[in-house]
Amino acid sequence: MNQADVSKLMSQLRIAVKPHRNLRNPDGPEGRLLKLRKTVTALVKHERIELYYNRADEARGYAELLISNAIRYGDRHKATMELADYWLLEKQLVHKLFKVLVPRLENCNFSYTRMYKAPRDYPGMYYRKSVLELRGNPYPSLLPDYTNNRNLIHNVLLDEARKDYRREKLAELADKIASESAVNAEKVGSEGDAKEAENVEKA
Amino acid sequence: MAGNKMLFQTVLNTLQRFNRLSNIRTYSTSKETVSPAIAKRNELFSEEQRRQKAAVGRVEKIEVRYLGLPEDVTLAMNAHISTPYNCAQHLSDGHCKRSALALKDGNVPWDMHRPLTESCTLQLLNFTVADPHLINKAFWRTCSFMLGAALENSFTDEAHLQLHSFPGPNIKSGSFVYDIVLQAQSWQPTKAEMRALSAAMIRLAAKDLKIERLDVNNELALEMFADSRYKREQLPSIAQQNQGRVTLYRMGTHIDISRGPMVASSRFLGKCTVAAAHKIANEGDKDALYRVQGVGLPAGFTLDHVSYGTLEERARKLNSARLPNEPFEEQHQQIA
User: Fold this and answer.
1) Fold of domain B134-315
2) How far, in whole angstroms, is CA A164 from its chain's centroid?
3) Pairing with B316, which of A1, A202, B1, B31 sits 20 to 30 Å away (CA)?
4) For residue B271, what pLDDT is reported?
């Protein structure tokens, strides 16, 4: 009951975090962190980068945390500013983080970054590759768009099926109206006959 | 274990009984042996293919300008030997796997396995390009062609199936078509029979059969289709419209007449349903003409079952394409 709500103390990441990797480096943990700082900086700077999978996956979590804290606390929070100062090696990117990325991503309901598996060069290094990008970047999408192109075969088929269905419904409606009007015409016709007969009698 | 075996036996018995009734092989995968007529036809096809390859003579180089991803390149290829598929092999494995049709000089659709004759520009098309009109049409035509093969594989000899022809591809009609003649004047296909035909289509797709194209002269075509009455009747008019040449396509052992182009392999067919068979007219006292219809999507296209169900529903309605027993409306029309 009286326990602190952990999610209020620390933002929950919107990505599945994999176990810690050591990212082998001759300079030890500092070297590893420098590598990740370079990656996070490059991500914020270029918005879409292609790199080895492990490094991208590891850096992604830090980038997510940085953006989520920036959105949560704003630029008047000392700890967040220190965090931004640490992760972004080029200091003009601190401005970009708070003035560009925060307004863009504050209403985002999913993760702030996106990661794709990329094909690896053949022949070349064996390591898996990936593409890491910020959401809402200005580049064309990496995934094919199957929904907006009306000329794709399934869209053509579905469009025609819809038109066919509408045509059928319209024909049904027309039949219904025609039969109703026929019934009315009969009624009117018979009434007219009765009146005529009355007129004749009066005469 | 015993229970399973018994169940299997029951199912098998039911299917066998069913087979006797319907003349469609619901259980066996395909005809084990190729009939002598088809074997002969294939032999003639291969022989003509060899002859045409040998007739190329001195190898001449052509420049093929490839336009597209990853970059525009110029390839030095061999005239009358190299195909767009060979060009794709120079690019990457992905190009070979994904490309279903080539576009020559920006406007002529060209089969992936058809040799290039002169220097040209080349684009490789897949099903997700911005304007997939041409490739969709080729796909629909290939579906009709494959339906012919599936029908030929599925009917037993007692059914006396004869393939008639298929009309030009029209995707907007909602179904691809093959017209056949059966020695049965009141065949009402059951659901299980339709499912067996659909399965035959899927089996063809799984086999990843290369679709080859060959232009032959009328005499050879008549010899190849000597046993097929309806094809033989169609050949003279087709040859007449095409300077005495007839375009044939082969997939596995199935050979058919078609104007083309078609996609590179049977593997490009993904989801597929043979939806209906409508009787069109009686042929003589025993035979009758049927129109078999289906709907399909290229491999890699996923559609939820409700949407696909509406497509299937629509494919059951009789396709309004030209019927084989109607006269041609215009002189230039041709069987696809």
Assistant:
1) Threonyl-tRNA Synthetase; Chain A, domain 2 (3.30.980)
2) 32
3) B31
4) 95
The predicted model gives A131-154 an average pLDDT of 90
pLDDT at A4: 73
User: How close A118 comes to chain B (CA, Å)?
Assistant: 13
Of how many residues is chain B composed?
336
Query: Of the candidates B321, B320, B316, which has an alpha carbon nearest to the alpha carbon of residue B275?
Result: B316
Yes or no, beta carbons of A161 and B310 under 8 Å apart: yes
* B139 closest CB neighbour out of A149, A151, A153: A153
Chain B: give the shortest CA distance to residue A47, in Å.
22
* Residue B182, strand partner residues: B288
Tens digit of pLDDT for each residue in B181-221? Answer: 999 999 999 999 999 999 999 999 999 999 999 999 999 99
Test A154 with B132 for CB contact under 8 angstroms.
no
pLDDT band at B25 (very low <50, low <70, confident <90, very high): low
pLDDT tens digits, one per residue of B98-147: 999 999 999 999 999 999 999 999 999 999 998 999 999 999 999 999 99
Nearest by CB to A161, from B132, B174, B301: name it.
Answer: B174
Alpha-carbon distances of B264 from A92, B275, B294, rounded to whole Å: 53, 25, 20
Residue B237 to residues A94, B244, B257, Cα–Cα distance (Å): 76, 9, 12
Domain A6-134, CATH: 3.90.1030.10
pLDDT at residue number A12: 83
Domains of chain A, residue spans: 6-134, 144-203
Provide residues of B within 8 Å CB-CB of chain A. 94, 127-128, 130-133, 136, 139, 171-174, 295, 297-298, 301, 303, 307, 310-311, 314
**Dist CA A131 CA B82 (whole Å):** 36
Question: What are the sequence ranges of the domains in chain B?
Answer: 54-126, 134-315
Query: Token digits for A97?
Result: 């983080």
Inter-chain residue contact B127 with A153, CB threshold 8 Å: yes
ipTM of the complex: 0.87
What kind and span of H or E run contains A73? helix A53-73
3-state SS class at B321: coil
**pLDDT of B6 above 50:** no
Question: Which of the pair, A11 or B178, is modelled with greater confidence?
Answer: B178
**Would you call A160 and B174 a contact, using CB atoms and an 8 Å cutoff?**
yes
CA distance B318 to chain A (A): 13
- Please identify, in words, the CATH class of the domain defined by B54-126: alpha beta
